[in-house]
Structure formats: structure tokens, C-alpha cells
Design goal:
The protein has 328 residues and is α/β, with parallel strands linked by helices. The protein is built from twelve helices and eleven strands. The chain binds pyridoxal-5'-phosphate. The site of pyridoxal-5'-phosphate has 14 residues, from helix 4.
Length: 328
Amino acid sequence: MTTRRIYLDYNASTPVDPAVSAMMKPFLTDHYGNPSSGHWASTGAKTAVETARSPVAAVLGCHNDEIVFTSGGSEANNLALKGVVFKLREEGDHIVTTSIEHPAILEPLRFLSRLGVRVTFLPVDAMGRVDPDDLRAALSPRTMLISIMHANNEVGTIQPIEECARIAREHGILFHTDAAQSVGKIPTDVNRLGVDLLSLAGHKLYAPKGVGALFIRRGISLEPLIHGAGHESGRRASTESALLAVGLGKACELARDLEAMDFVRALRDHFWVELQKRFGNSIALNGHPMHRLPNTLNVSFVGRIGAEIFGSKSDGCRDRRGYGCCPI
Ligand SMILES: Cc1ncc(COP(=O)(O)O)c(C=O)c1O
């Protein structure tokens, strides 16, 4: 049996868009100067980093000086969570989040709880949505931060961020959202969402791995995770990579066009219809039928675990490296 491989897991990672790699290429060879230097060799790199900040800010509807380049979504999340706690430790010791966050939120919170921070994990309903009333009930005068993901990486459920952020604002509490999965798929305007901090990850939106960004609303000051020279306006030390900034900038420029997502949604829905035709009641849709990322289809094969379906010898085949291929 021959197997044609189709890569569908764009929530795990995306390929680098050819337009992104074309923009990046000259920065591997030509613009090698340190963006922080004050001479001719730095000019190209410095200009490129600052130019690249604009499309990142544009996809979030914020100011350029509200964007800090990071090494990815995990670092952006760590900077948001630890940066708030270390900066505002006198003002609170409680964080509210959800039980379905990515490990890039759960693990820094586990670390912070070892330092004495109390963390409340809100439950979600059967479709993966948090109830804003549960959020309201969880708040205390010691709550310093709420962190709720914009869209879930597994089932794609989109959270009621506007409503949750409004509750945070009413109580004078900072609000962070992990938007690693939503940027480029659904609108992510920080002012519409009403968030103070937002993380994004380049490799989820056709930029390379190893680059991301944190939106930090003007007026909010975080303790840096990486202390050193004054890069990124003193918010993240380490010589900026013009190569990666340019890649993220181009990817964010492309990500502003959400029209392509209509086609992706149509393909996803077609796939779901075909699966239902073939498997009937033996499959079930996970996540929210409406409030869901347009690219995400997560199904359960009733009574069977994923590994069985993915790697079953009886149903499928194995490639040269022994990975199973499901012949759906
Ligand atoms: C929701 C979410 N947050 C954060 C991350 C981490 O991003 P990165 O791999 O860029 O560190 C991921 C990656 O899978 C993710 O899905």
C-alpha cells in the first residue's frame, strides 16, 4: 500500500512561508551588524528590526513600542507571568487561569506557586469554554493577574476574552492572553479584546521557530526575565536578531489577511462532513461547534484512543521509520 502524506497539524507548527524566507535570506549573509551599534554596519539590521515591529503591531492593532520580540510563545508567556509577579509582588499574590492552558502557561505558574503565588484554575464546560461568572467568583483583592488563552491548541475553542478582560478591568486586574494559536486565524486586535498583555508564537503563523512577541500595553512595566544590556527598551536583554524579526514581521503582514481562513474553514467543514459519512455515530466532535478556530477539527473515535488510530497495525500501515499512517 502506498501512502500519500498530508500534513494537517498546523496548530503544532506551520511551514515557513516562501515570502517569509525570501525576506529573511539577506539577513543570513549581508546585514550582520549588531542592531545596537552606532555605525554603518549596524544600520541595515537596526532599521530592519524596527521596520519589522510595525506589521507585528499592526496584526494586534497596537503601537510599535508595545511589542517586545521574544524567542517564541513560551518566552512571551513566561515574561508576562513572571514579569508581573516579580514587578507587582507587593500588590498581590494570586493569579487566575484556566485548567486547559498550554504547558507554556501551566509550568511557569507551577514555578510561581513554589514561590508562594496562589493560582486558581478555572474549569471549562464540555465544549472547552470558560464561564465568565466563574472568573468573577474567583477574584480576590489579592488577584494581580488573569491569564486565559485566546484559543485552545488541541480543540480550537475560542474563549470569551472580551468579556473576561472587561471583568478584569472592572476590578483593576491585569489581563493576559496566550494568542499563540489565534493570530492569523481570527481577529486579534488588543483593543477590541481589551487585553493588557498578549503572547504570540512565530512558528504557528508561517514564521520560523525561535521567534515570538509579547504585547505589553503602554504604561505597564514588567520585570525582565533576561537582564543585560538595554535591548528591547530594557524589557529583554540579548542582541536582537534582525533575521528572526524580519521573518516574524513578514509573517504578521501576511497574517492580517484573514480571508484565506474562509477557505480553510470550508475545507475543515467538508472534512468533518466526509468523516461523518464514513464513521457515523462512532465519531464525535470535540470543542465548540461555533466558537472554534477555523482551521481546527478535533474528533474522538468513540471507544478508541488516539494512539490506536494513529499507529494501528491492523488498520493502517507503517512508514520506514515505524510511524503509523491512518488510511482514512
Ligand atoms: C497555546 C500555545 N501557547 C504557547 C505555545 C508555545 O509556543 P513556542 O513553541 O513558540 O514556545 C504553544 C505551542 O505549541 C501553544 O500552542
